[in-house]
Amino acid sequence: MTMDELARLRSSRPRSVELAIPGVEVLELPTELDARGALVELCRATWVAPDTPVQWNAITNRPGSLRGVHWHNEHADFISPVHGSILAAVVDLRVGSPSEGHADVITLDAAEPRAIVIAPGVGHGFFSADASVVMYGVSEYWDPDDELGVRWDDPALGIPWPPEADGALVSGRDAGFPTLAEAGERLTWPG
Fold it and tell me: What b-and-e string marks burial along 165-186, b requiring 16 or more CB atoms within 10 Å of the CB?
């Protein structure tokens, strides 16, 4: 492949798969492999505009960790493991959305670089059976008033967590979240 062909490939939007929830998609990230390892292009502004990440965080997970279920009314999320794998869960919490209440899970593995883009109002969390490192971009700077959540194990969410998630390491904050029925105001579908 010539340098011009490589530049064109890198500048185009990667192949994406939309999930059943509007505004949630999985991007197959461009990867260059050689004898030393790999270079993965995690994100370009043109791939996710207008929800371009303005802040990036790195999350390390011990084996058996579960994070979530969180949602944000003001920003989109961009999540990709760079070491290990995670089971990412999404559930449409937007009132009036055509997929309101629909939940889905997808495995993301650093060995097959992909990222999930999550629209505002969509609940999300992830379980890491083994150690992992996750890059987490957000389209607005962190704001504690936009950090909302519900209990990860609330049956009303319909998330098909694996059996090993039952004994997961969960933060005090996440364990203390209300059920969906008790949760505060949710984003209304703009459609």
Answer: beebebeeebeebeebeebeeb
Give the residue numbers annotated as catalytic, written as ranges: 70, 136
Secondary structure of the chain in HEC code, one letter for each residue: CCHHHHHHHHHCCCCEEECCCCCEEEEECCEEEECCEEEECCCCHHHHCCCCCCEEEEEEECCCEEEEEEECCCCCEEEEEEECEEEEEEEECCECCCCCCCEEEEEEECCECEEEEECCCEEEEEEECCCEEEEEEECCCCCHHHCEECCCCCHHHCCCCCHHHHHCECCHHHHCCCCCCCCCCCCECCC
pTM of the prediction? 0.88
Q: List pLDDT tens digits, range 51-90.
A: 889 999 999 999 999 999 999 999 999 999 999 999 999 9
Residue reference for tokens 């059976």 = 129
Delineate the domains of the chain, giving CATH numbers in brackets: 11-173 (2.60.120.10)
pLDDT tens digits for 148-171? 999 999 999 999 999 999 999 999
Tokens 């944000």, located at residue = 72
Q: Which residues contact 27 (CB under 8 A, 6 or more apart)?
A: 13, 14, 15, 16, 47, 114, 115, 116, 117
